[in-house]
Specification:
Layout (H helix, E strand, L loop, with lengths): L1 E9 L1 E2 L2 E9 L2 E5 L2 E3 L6 H13 L3 E14 L4 E12 L20 E8 L16 H7 L6 E6 L1
């Protein structure tokens, strides 16, 4: 089994959360911006780079809010995800940093935006907690890192 470590950034503006829309093999889903660690990069450097690449926004990481595991049997991959709460600069998000790079995400990421909370119930979203308990955790200032469990 392969192992993959993904680091993502959680950013809100009012009652909206920053998400990236992926479309691949006829499926679409929304996730916080993030990606895999490269080389000897730290988790904080990884999340800063990934948020910048996918949204064009400078990310300032705060606490690790969530840890999640995902077993993807189709690819025999065990994913470990760390989600940093944080802030970004005031610009509007855009996937412009991916354009023309030849990076795999260039053709998979179709949209980047702050998605209002009422819309979250109408999209495929990972992690699911972004629809519900995330908002309570945010209001409480993410007092402790939460383990979201293992999904298959």
């Amino acid at each position: 089994m392969k192992h993959r470590i993904r680091i993502a950034g959680l950013v809100t503006r009012g009652a909206s959360v920053l998400l990236v829309k992926h479309v691949m093999h006829g499926s679409e889903w929304w996730v916080p911006p993030g990606g895999v660690i490269e080389g000897e990069e730290s988790i904080e450097d990884c999340v800063r780079r990934e948020v910048w690449e996918e949204t064009g926004l400078a990310f300032v990481p705060g606490k690790i809010a969530y840890v999640r595991q995902y077993i993807e049997r189709a690819t025999d991959t065990h994913h470990l995800e760390l989600f940093f709460a944080g802030t970004t600069s005031g610009e509007e998000p855009s996937p412009r940093n991916l354009q023309g790079t030849g990076a795999p995400d260039e053709h998979v990421i179709k949209e980047v935006r702050f998605v209002p909370r009422p819309e979250l119930g109408r999209v495929t979203l990972y992690p699911e907690e972004l629809r519900t308990s995330f908002w309570d955790d945010l209001a409480a200032g993410f007092p402790q890192t939460r383990y979201l469990g293992v999904t298959y």
